[in-house]
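Narrative of activities, Objective 1.

The group set out to show that a structural description can be obtained from nothing but a protein's sequence at a throughput compatible with the screening campaign. Below is one input-output pair from the validation batch, recorded exactly as produced.
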Amino acid sequence: MLKLGIIGAGNIGSSHVNRVLAGECPNVTVTAVADRKESRRAWAKERVPEAAIFAEGSELIASGACDAVLIATPHYQHPTLSAEAFEHGLHVLCEKPAGVYTLQVREMNAAADRHPELVFGMMFNQRTNCVYRKMKEMIDGGEIGQIKRMSWIVTDWYRTQYYYDSGAWRATWAGEGGGVLLNQCPHQLDLLQWLCGLPAKVHAFCHEGKWHDVEVEDDVTAYLEFPGGATGVFITTTGDAPGTNRLEISGTKGKLVCEGNVLTFDKLEVDEREWCRTCQEGFRKPDSQHIVVETDGQNQQHSGVLNAFAAAIESGAPLVADGREGIHGLMLSNAIHLSAWTGETVTLPIDEEKFHALLTERCKTSRHKEETDVVMDTSGSYGSKETK
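Output recorded for this entry:
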């Protein structure tokens, strides 16, 4: 039985407590919870009376009350708390995103590499979704041929002003490090690179406070160019209702579309590149077959990730996502921000020092600056004290 400590008992942290208590993770028991808010500590003590309760994540990590930690704090603290846990011999499962900027996440990954005996997982629960797993299988198996184009319109992340006003750290540069890209879209950015690979170039537009009274981006359009010649568009916002979530990936052998949790495949009878060279008619497309793709129907989400994490510790079973992979989607997120801030096309890997310097300037004028417990040291790195 894995003894798990949960750092952060807010929206997502409390849901992890509840799913363990509901029996969704039979090989996991919650033995410790940390949160700075007294009301959340009281809630945790009531829900898990046998667990040790702490005000600080660092206290939980040093307590010996658990074998592993699940880090569910605001984003800046994910890398620092993860590294601290590794140094205390604890396995780590980190909520998304991996962090706010890649320089900090590289430090986290280096800490994990110093402790290969410990398991490091990332909570990319959307990788358990049967439709995305099937897309991955079909792309890797060559069924759609060479990827030519992708587009993802994910505008069903609607949020009200009340949501943003619910926490002083929300939607601020100093408290959260970004808006829709850092809070809502890490899953989609991870899936995008998981399915298609990281782009080589990004040119993006981020509108800050377009639909809400916030200082960060709530409306994003990004153009992507991939190493193999494919192009892509990524569009997201928290201001559209009812919104759309449609992922389309076109290849030389057909087109995959995922929308409404239904996956379809328009399968070409002949590879388009061959058809283009050999067809003797100017307007005729290759014949195609429209297929509703069958999946295994399994979509275990957070419980699936947590169960795989426990199994990896127990027997070396594969993780849903290794924690070190979190840097890839964050690299794309940072690239989108950097392009929008500079008005330039950005190549990947990005200039990480430049990104961090520009982020630091935004943090200095953030409305959360005077309220946050997150403080910068002289090197520009964030301290290890977590906020909730």
